[in-house]
Amino acid sequence: MTSLDAVGPLLRREETIAVALLLAFGGGYLDAYTWIIHGVMANAQTANLVLLWVHGSTGDWAGALHFVPPMLAFAVGIVMAAWLRGAAGERAVAISLLVEILLLVAVAILHNRLPDVAGTLGISFVAAMQTAVFSRVEGVAYSSVMITGNMRQAIENLFAALGGGPPGALRRSGIFSALCVMFGIGAAVGAVATEVTPELALALPVVALLIVLLRCEAERRKARP
């Protein structure tokens, strides 16, 4: 597997920086959307787990159970992505993107008809597939649906670069910092769009996923002998 220090022709199409940034934008956007619309996090299952037990510790089990469905949907999405990678091989990327796009379109169309839990399930499932299928940027593990690990990588590599570490450390720090910033931009845009036009808010992450799909398919065709 290639690394950030040696980016070359073997780089997988789903591991490019452009793809990672688009997915990070979508990750932040969807978290803002589900928090405003449904009061849960689509991506940050740590937050859902903490809130579940905060409510449970006070005896508010109805409030606690509100955070269970997105965690279950996230788990199912991870299993589905793992199965897809084994069953579809190289086509898993395109298939997973199509599934994510169709689910978001369905939730957007049925926005006023679906109960809150249904929309949450669909979006958490999308987030799980995204984080399982798109797990590396230029050969290094990252997350497009949360920033904790990305922030750690940015700070560690900056520290290494300032201390005279490997030549690629500063570049790695820049990439992971950009992912954190793009996630934040996605959250901000998602919050504004959801407040202003909730019925159309999911259009932007759908467009982002479509661009990722087109980029990946274009690179796959170019790579054909």
Describe it.
With 225 residues, the chain is mainly alpha-helical. It is 72% helix and 2% strand. The protein has a single domain, classed as Growth Hormone, Chain: A, CATH 1.20.1250. The protein has nine helices and two strands. The chain has a two-stranded antiparallel ribbon. Strand 1 (136-137) and strand 2 form a beta hairpin. It is globular and about 50 Å long. The relative contact order is 0.20.
Q: Would you spell out the secondary-structure blueprint of this structure?
A:
Blueprint: H1 17-38, H2 45-57, H3 61-65, H4 68-88, H5 92-109, H6 116-133, E1 136-137, E2 140-141, H7 148-162, H8 169-196, H9 203-223
Antiparallel strand pairs: 1-2
Helix pairs in contact: 1-6, 1-8, 1-9, 2-4, 4-5, 4-6, 5-6, 5-9, 7-8
Q: What about the largest sheet?
A: 2 strands, antiparallel
pLDDT averaged residue by residue: 87
Kindly report the spatial arrangement of strands forming the biggest sheet.
Answer: 1-2
pLDDT < 50 stretches: 1-10
The percent range for helix content is over 70%
Distance between the ends? 21 Å
Structural class: mainly alpha
